[in-house]
Amino acid sequence: MSFRSKSLCFVLILGFSMSTLVYALYEMSDLTPEAIDRCLFQYMPDKLFGDKNGQYIEIDDIKMYYEVYGSGEPLLLLHGGSAFIETWCAQITELSKHFTVIVPETRAHGRTSDSDKPLTYEQYALDYVEFLRKLNLNRVHIVGWSSGAVVGLELALKHPELIKKLILIGIFYDRHKGGTEILNNTLKNATADSWNGKWFYQILSPTPERWPIVFRKLKKLWTESPTYTADQMRGIQKEILIMNGRDEEWIRTQHALELHQLLKNSTFVSVPNTGHWLPTESPKAVNGQIINFLK
Description:
The protein is of the alpha/beta class. It folds into 2 domains: about 1-40, no CATH class; about 50-295, Alpha/Beta hydrolase fold, catalytic domain (Rossmann fold, 3-Layer(aba) Sandwich), CATH 3.40.50. Helix content is about 45%, strand content about 20%. It has 14 helices and 8 strands. It has helices at about 5-15, 15-25, 35-40, 90-95, 120-135, 145-160, 175-180, 180-190, 195-205, 210-225, 230-235, 255-260, 280, 285-295, and strands spanning about 55-60, 60-70, 75-80, 100-105, 140-145, 165-170, 240-245, 265-270. The chain has an 8-stranded mixed β-sheet with strand order 1-2-4-3-5-6-7-8, with helices on both faces. Helix 6 links the parallel strand 5 and strand 6 (about 165-170). The protein starts with a helix and ends with a helix.
C-alpha cells in the first residue's frame, strides 16, 4: 500500500485532526515519504502515539503533556526543537519492551503550553527537574535528540544526581563552533511562515495562534545557544553515549568527536547512511545502541 493510500486509511479511521497531522508530516521537507511511512505505519500498527495514555501536569507556569509506556527502569525521551511525541514513533514500541518510557513534550512544543518566558535550555532543564520530582522519579536514563540532547547536557552539568546514563543524539555543545553552514543558512532564512514546525504547532498546540511568538523565541535559542565551554564538558562524569548520523547535515562531525574526547566517560557511535533524523532513518540500529548501552 502506498504512503498516500495509507494516509487515506487514517483519514477514515482517525478523523480530520490526525489525518491533517499525517499530511503535515508528508509536507515536511526534512522527512522523506519513506521515513514517514516507517514511522506512522510500520512502527505504529495499532495506534498512533500522541493523545494516547496522555496526562497533563502543572510545571512552573505551563501545563506539560506527557505519555508513559512499558515497564522497567525509567527512561526519559527528550525530543528535538519544534518536535513532539510522534517524532519518537520508531523508538517507543521497541524501548517500552525494556523500560518504562516517559515521553513528555517540552515547553511550547506539541500539546504543552507556552508562557511569556524566553525559551532557553536552562529553562527546559528546570522544567524537567520539576517534572521528575513531581513524578517521584529520583534517577532516570535519558535519551535526548537534537535540542533534547542539549537539555540532557544541561541536566548532566547542573543536576547529575538525576541521571543514570545519558544518550545524546545529534548534538553540539557550542552552537557557533558546531553548526554547519547548512544549519546557519537554514536558520538565517527561516521565518515563522516558512518553518515546517508551524504545521505541527498549529495542529497540536492548545494555543495555535502563538506560533509567530514561539518561532521568534525558538529562532533566538537555536541561533545563539548552546555555548558550553570545554572545561564544563570535562567536568561531566556521567556515562554517556553520543550518536551521530554519518551524513549529519547540521552538526560538524569533528565537533561531535571533540565533545566525545572532552566527556571522559563517553562512547561515540557514527550510524551509517543517516543524517540528523537518524532515529527514524535507521531505527533498528539506533534502538539497538540505546538498549545495549542502557542494559
